[in-house]
Design goal:
This protein has one domain (about 5-240). The relative contact order is 0.13. By secondary structure, it is mainly α. About 75% of the residues lie in helices and about 0% in strands.
């Protein structure tokens, strides 16, 4: 096998992406390879988030699973675009000189790592879903309790994967900024920005489970009359009562 063939196979390996090793950093900083990196990162996000969305949505119904598998990639790409603009402005204010294209590609890679981690948790989520009582009609107290547990569990899993995925960007940012302190500062700020943007957009896109006592909606009917944090707090409060 030639070196070119080996490289062609290795750069699509998710382990290369998750480790954010020197090979990946070399491809990101090489203008000739950036298009391939962006394409593969987008594919990882599309496939992995759709698979995860389908897995947790199947508890509610097949309709919910299909909706969630469509809306999870939309949520990730929407968070990317909303967060990248703010992250670019902050990068410019801090004097890093990073362009919008570079920031977008960097954030995209963090999203891709997050997506791969979520896909790795699909067997765990499937096991949990299969152990939960089904969403019955008429809805029981037990099924509402299961809904709240799954909702909170999904938020925790996605939040954890999001933080870890974006922490992996530190090595890349250190190369791009040529400064350890600047890379750390940017990394922490970006995690906060992307986390907040992702939370609010998840309320608008609503890829998570619909309550068992209402029909499954594609669009969140309460998108403009509440927010993510208020709804999550309500779910936690009702769960611990």
């Amino acid at each position: 096998m030639s070196t070119d063939t080996h490289n062609e196979k290795s750069w699509i390996d998710p382990s290369i992406l998750c480790r954010m090793n020197n090979d990946l950093i070399a491809w990101v900083t090489n203008p000739g390879e950036q298009g391939k990196v962006i394409l593969i990162a987008c594919l990882y996000i599309l496939i992995c988030t759709a698979l995860y969305g389908f897995t947790f949505g199947i508890w509610r119904s097949l309709e919910q699973a299909i909706y969630s598998s469509v809306k999870m990639p939309i949520l990730f790409f929407a968070t990317l675009m909303a967060g990248a603009m703010i992250c670019t402005m902050l990068a410019q204010v801090l004097g890093t000189g990073l362009s919008f294209k570079t920031v977008c590609m960097t954030v995209l890679l963090g999203m891709a790592v997050t997506s791969v981690m979520l896909a790795s948790l699909v067997p765990v989520m499937l096991f949990i879903v299969l152990q939960m009582p089904l969403a019955n009609d008429p809805v029981s107290v037990v099924s509402m309790h299961a809904y709240r547990i799954l909702l909170i569990l999904n938020v925790l899993m996605i939040g954890f994967c999001g933080v870890v995925g974006n922490c992996r960007l530190y090595r890349l940012l250190k190369t791009l900024t040529a400064s350890t302190s600047m890379a750390l500062r940017l990394n922490l700020i970006w995690i906060l920005i992307l986390g907040f943007a992702g939370c609010e957009l998840s309320w608008l896109v609503s890829p998570f489970l619909a309550r068992p006592d209402i029909p499954v909606p594609f669009f969140n009917p309460n998108a403009f009359s509440g927010n993510f944090f208020e709804y999550l707090w309500q779910a936690v409060s009702e769960l611990v009562r």
